[in-house]
Amino acid sequence: MSAPSLTPSRAARSRNPQPRQGSPEAPGGTFARNLRRNLTAHAFLIGAVVCFALFSWYPMVREFLLAFQKTESGRTVWVGLDNFTTVFNDPAFWQAWGNTLWFTTLALVLGFAVPFVLAITINEFRHGKGYLRLLVYLPVMLPPVAGVLLFQYLYDPGYGLLNELLGLLRLPEQQWLQDADIAMFSLVVASTWMNMGGATLIYLAALQGIPGELYEAAELDGAGLLRRIWHVTIPQTRLILSLMFLMQIIATMQVFVEPFLLTGGAGPEGSTTTVVYLIYQYAFNFNNYGAAAALGLLLLVLLAGFSAAYAKLSRSEDA
Amino acid sequence: MRSARLRRTRRASAVTLVSAMTLTALAACGTSSSDDDGDGASQQSRQSGATDASVPLDPKTKVSITIDCMPPAAKAAELKEWKEDVAAFNKTYPNVTIEGRSTPGQCLEPPRFTAMLKAKSQPDVFYTYFTDLPQVLSEDGAEDISAYVSDRTVPALKDIDPNVLGSLKQDGKLYGLPTSNYTMGLLINRKLFKDAGLDPDAPPKTWEEVRAAAKKIAGLGEGVSGFGEYSAGNTGGWHFTAQLYSLGGDIVDTSGKKAAFNNDLGKQVAKNLRAMRWDDDSMGKTQLLKWGDLQKQIATDKLGMFLAAPDDITYMVQQLGASYENFGMGPIPGGRNTLAGGNNYMIKKGISPDKIKAGIAWLNFKNLTVGKGQFDWSRAKADNLPVGLPQPNFWLNGSKKTDDAGRAASATMPVANFRAFMANPVPGKSEPPKAQEIYKVLDNVMSGILTNKDADVDKLLSTAETQVNQVLANQ
Questions:
Q1: What CATH number is associated with residue B394?
Q2: N or C: which end of chain A has fewer CB within 10 A?
Q3: Does pTM top 0.80 for this prediction?
């Protein structure tokens, strides 16, 4: 995939010079001409744009404003940085950030590696790839709440399947969700199981795009499986790996469902309180929308950095 | 492709950030005018200013009001009664149109309620919990109805427990009328009590007795727990508060600025729970429970006791398929104070005086007249609805006697099972200021005790004290 095959050459561009604005060929300019030419497409876009404007962009603007406002006696007043002060003074603030970063780290170690290894393994199969893809993707189709309930049964300290298995092996029972030291790990396992299907399919698609000659050449050079993965697979999928890495960070830093449903939100001694759970608390338990928006804004700023990196990577992929 | 991906990313990283913002956006879209009630006659009367608040609604007045919490179709019997009550009410006030607003789930779901208040889209007569008053007033959502409520408009006013009415007042102004109240007690499973050789008619009265009974019940084995407690979703802190109240303690001092639970009484609560959980192993292994979890356990004969309000029994019978006969209640162990709360209706700020009068007339008929509306026990019995639960019980004097007699005559459950609770009323005490924030902090104390065998009670309480002081300082 070389650049010249995708990009029109200078000669080609000179053979098809762009019409100058205002010339008889382009009355009203390029924009107007494009608009006319793609009128149907633009008409279809209107619905999406309106939806995004109403339900994505407008709330973002409102959130920004809310972070500096407070509602008192039905009137909205500007309070400057008061909401941020409230958030910073919350005893749970740093714990929530620490827990969120811990979840993200564990999710990167476990949730990032498992789908990639699965994809490589499935890709090695000559037959039944479609069947395996379906099997891996099935958990994604399970509603998140159903998945969480399933893990609730697995993790139950009294009758859970995991402790039953440990009992059979004569190993000590574990308090999977009730031990502050391992609760977050248990959440990551549940989350990984529920979400790995999508990532695995993306990795599989990337793996199938790697030319077979590269592997053949590596084998001729005497490379074993691990060296082939290291020298062929990973470099060839580097970009998609980087993108998924960033997506994983963005997604896992917004973790909410798993701690909310599996450990009641805070978990043992607050060990599973995440930033988004704290936002939920402010908004729906304390009715403090200003503080919720302020904390949301802080998270937004952090994630915006990752989003920018993601966008840059996307551009380099498209180039 | 690139822009679409970028847009998706931005959306992904924004939409889930603040659940509040979408709600607020929707709330903004759904804003309705509270001033414009669209009722010409009412507008006229407001403009004229001729309406005397203390005079009951003139039956000839034509007015239309929206009322919260009309039973949904799924609650057929309650809906039938609602319609009957509207028809009966219209015999006195033929020109008043009652427009019921139905809610599928609970009448008041905090997120929806908050959005409604922010958007000023609450019905003219809207449902609230006692603890909602500060939030409603901060949103300027409720009308001061002091001048409208008198023994002319609410004849049984003098017989309403002043503690109940007091919870609807601020700065001497009345902002609502009650429909029910509750105080917490000790809910027991009678079958397990009998199986464990305990007397279900004499539930434990002290925490020492609770501990001993819990041990016996847990001794039945097969996964049965003696006593259950919450420790998640703010409900752990809520119950820590109830337990502390029961010993005469308090969560916040009289100034409202300092935590007051890190003392001997707080430690007594914590140590008793710790002993039951770890020394006696009588509280089961599964913890981090929240509202609904203990109800399921006791309804399936897996739990002997927990702190609850009487209306939990209705939930367990109607939603979980349990039977009334299997439950009993005693007063909260310790018996010094118990956590109290309840439900009521408020009138939307800004509606016309005639609408306010019509709302109060309806509330008086439906919720505050002995023998009628919600207190028509013979009708409730005929409709297979529960009769005989000890609460709501906000009546005093003659109204109480009449109501108790009507309730006993139509009881659909063995009321003797609740005699211990009824015969030993414990003074009710309302929730502390910044209740939910404090409960969140105290959840950690409860979860620490119930999930960590080696939890340092002193440290848990001390940390919570610091955090609650911080919460109170941020008021």
A1: 3.40.190.10
A2: N
A3: no
